[in-house]
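Problem: given the chain below (109 residues), write out its structure.
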Amino acid sequence: MNVSTPTGVPDDDEYWQRQDQAYDASRPRPPAPDQAPPYEGPPRTEPPSPHWRPPVVPQPPPPRSMPEQDIDALDEAEGSARTLTYGVGLVAGAIALILMCLLCARAIF
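Solution.
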């Protein structure tokens, strides 16, 4: 196989074609491919059996009623929870303040 540039004025595509597929005017053109038949859609399905039924899902029972809420007891529980939260925060803040004072005093002296 010769991969060098041929002599003379080459055709643009002649260099990239194989020797057996080079353009030859005496060769007849290949026959055009047959037209494909038009698409007729999917095949028809068979109908289901006459005894077939879709699955039946039973209806769930209605939800139960919730017990009544004791608003006064809820308010009292929220108040005591708030007091506990503030107390824990004050203790943590006091411990942090004491540690800061100790560290600063140690660094200065």
